[in-house]
Amino acid sequence: MTLAGTVRDAAAPARAEAIAQRVQGVVTIENRIARDVSVDAGFGLTDLTAKAIQIVRYLPLVGVAIVAALVIALLGWLLASWTGLWRRLMPNSFLAELIASSIRFVFAILGIVAALDMLGAGTLLSAVLGGAGVIGIALGFAMRDTVENYVASLMLSLRQPFRANDHVVIDAHEGRVVRLTSRATVLMSLDGNHLRIPNSSVFKAVILNYTRNPQRRFDFELGIDANDDPTAARHLGVEALKGLDFVLAEPEPQARVEGVGDSNIVIRFLAWIDQGQADFYKARSRAIPAVKDALEADGFALPEPIYRLRFDGGTVPAPTAPGSEPPAARSKSRRPPAVPAGSDQLDTAPEKAVEKMVEKERAVTPGKDDLLDAARPVE
Fold first, then answer.
1. Which among 177, 203, 271, 301 could bridge 253 via Cys, Cβ 3.0 to 4.6 Å?
2. Which residues, in sequence order, are CB contacts of 11 under 8 Å at separation 6+?
3. Per-residue pLDDT tens for 253-292?
């Protein structure tokens, strides 16, 4: 069988060949049907009129499909707007907002799918879903950091490593926690500045929390003369630490011999304080001179590094004025006066300036974009 002629539709030759194959007795088909690609044939007035009529006929169905899509989307929006329900079911506001946003998105997709299905656009629906998948993968790679930060915010809101106003060190950043938002952790540094750290960095960081345990240990080193007894110096320094009112009796203060230098023996003294009653830096600043004075009062020498200088044979020492004394002797002969008992230098009360700043800022905007919740567990 031989098929010949011209058609305007590109699919017409294939349809004609399929019809011819169903004729009984046909063994071979030679398809010579050609498509007419002339302008007059492709864009005839009749075809345009027919297509316009077909579009007009489709308008009621298109309207019904759009209404159905809007109704489904509106249903999802109403369901997601029950914020009180989601906040009661979810552990925090961030997760409740995430659930609400997911419901809106899912119902919007369902509305589009239902509308396309009503229009019989199955091929278009498959193309849209396939394109959405490809676009989603591309956006996932392009917004990898944003997605990682979003997931880290979710995990931090569920398992919180700190509370508001905790004194923490996150990697190299130290300060007090102001709030945990859906994007970053806000700290107030010890000099009163705001510090925003992305939650993805906080989630992977090593976090040191000074507030979780009120007991904290400080230490310092002092050197005694190489000829002195280090054991006696250790016991004397520990007794001096025990005599300080801010040093805890349990755990007890300790002293260790760290090493022997060129001209001294280095001893490290360690003591514990309650951070709720004493400031760490103030306590350490009082403990160092207290142990130093106790050692010197008992005859222990705290030597300075000794340097041996060699002069040429022709060098003549500078003359010393009669009645004068070397600078070192003058510095030792004039000791500074003792600090009065009521002086602020003896104060070891906790420093609360930054803590009050954080409380004031949190009181201005209570709960605004803050994921910290005292009811959640702390890791």
1. 271
2. none
3. 999 999 887 778 999 999 999 998 999 999 999 999 999 9
Q: What is the pTM of this model?
A: 0.60
d(CA 376, CA 158): 7
List, in order, residues 6 or more apart from 75 with CB less than 8 Å away: 107
CA distances from 363 to 179, 358, 372 (A): 12, 9, 14
DSSP 247: B
Q: How many residues does the chain have?
A: 379
d(CA 331, CA 339): 18
Count CB neighbours of 49 within 10 A.
10
- Residue 4 tokens read as 């010949």
In tens, the pLDDT along 17-35 reads 888 888 888 888 888 888 7
Judged by phi (left if over 0) then psi (alpha if -120 to 50, else beta), residue 162 lies in: beta
> Amino acid identity, residue 141?
F
Gap between the Cα atoms of 181 and 120, Å rounded:
45
Whole-Å CA distances, 236 to 84, 117, 241, 293, 322? 64, 89, 9, 11, 41
Asked if residue 240 has pLDDT above 90, the reply is yes
Question: 375: closest CA among 154, 100, 93?
Answer: 93
Give the integer Cα–Cα distance in Å for 349 and 360. 21
Pairing mode, if any, of strands 167-170 and 30-35?
A: unpaired
Q: Return the closest-CA partner of residue 158 out of 239, 244, 91.
A: 91
Alpha carbon 267 to chain centroid distance?
40
Residue in the block written with tokens 């019904």: 64
Nearest of 302, 287, 223, 296 to residue 257 by alpha carbon: 223
User: Cβ distance 97 to 81 under 8 Å?
Assistant: no
Assign 191 to helix, strand or coil: coil
Angle at the Cα of 191 (from 221 to 167), degrees rounded to 5? 70
Q: Whole-angstrom Cα distance, residue 307 to residue 211?
A: 45
One-letter identity of residue 254? Q
